[in-house]
Amino acid sequence: MKSYFTKESKILAHNEKETLYSKLLQSAQEQYEKLQSRMETVEGLIKEAESCLAALEAGVCFQTADWYRCGMMCSALKALNNRWPLRLERVGVFVTRVLHLTWASLCRELSGLEAENEQMLVEMEQLKEKEKSCREFVETYDFTEWEITEWSEQQAVFSFLYDAVELTVVFGPPVDGDDFGEDPSRMIVSLNFESLLDEEKAPPSSCLVQRLIFQFIESQGCWQEKCPTLGNLSQVLHEVSLVVSRCKVLGEEIEFLERWGGKFNLLKTEVDDTGLKLLFSSSTAFAKFELTLALSANYPSTSLPFTVRKHIGNVGEEEISAVLSRVPVGYHYLRRIVSSIHQNLLGDPR
């Protein structure tokens, strides 16, 4: 919008300058035409004077009227001849002044445009940095986990988590005057969630995520009561998306620990229903123990209940509790728990 008004102001300024220069050019042209007229007058007088001189030399111009006429013409010619350089000088000064003012105006305009260009380049760089920051923020906190797979007059179907969860919304009869069936007051007959995950082929972390999502869905009771009309559907999609997003991150954390757990003295990661068993072992700390975390759909907004089974060493529930109490809940809570145990209890020199 700013660049639009900047261009508009430039166009107006150029139009005003064009009008001014047109007037100056017209004035100079009028002066030139007057000069041409005077030159023609002078040429006529000169020719007449020459004819008078020729008559004098021939002796045919001795009458008083002729003498008087010749005298007047000579006087006029002399007066014009005296004023002619002055008028030419004034015209030259005028034209020079016009050109000087035009040049100075163009120089000022060019300087202003260069400064404005530099300012716009700086602003563009700032806007690019801001856009980059906003994109990163949106990508980090984008909780829109649903996609529309079907929308008809009778129902709408939404998918979550790579088509592993499906929500079918059945609509009531359309409201009078609602040609497109999108009136917010249109009734919803039923909402049905269905799991499409093949648990026999899916990895344990995906099965855990699926169980936690449906744990949340079942804990909400009757969804049709929470979403009686089409206007309430967006809130339902948002609530489910939040849970799906958090559980999806949890699944990614479990997969990370399964792959890179050795860096944290983590020998084994095992999923047990909605629980997660972590087996730690360290020769440096001479300790081996199994930590079981009870996960829920509220992860990672609440602390995780846990139990400890000691195999070797003195690391037990009291030591684990002291470490976990210093780990704040939030993003990547599980990874931070494992990292904190590794650093504080298993003899990591860092």
TrEMBL record:
GO BP terms in the entry: attachment of spindle microtubules to kinetochore; protein localization to kinetochore
Domain of life of the native organism: Eukaryota
Knl1 C-terminal RWD domain location: 108-250
The keyword Coiled coil is assigned to this record: yes
InterPro entries: Blinkin (IPR037388), Knl1_RWD_C (IPR040850)
Example of a GO cellular component annotation carried by this entry: nucleus
Keyword Coiled coil set for record: yes
Keywords: Coiled coil
Coiled coil regions, renumbered to chain: 25-52
Protein name (record): KNL1 protein
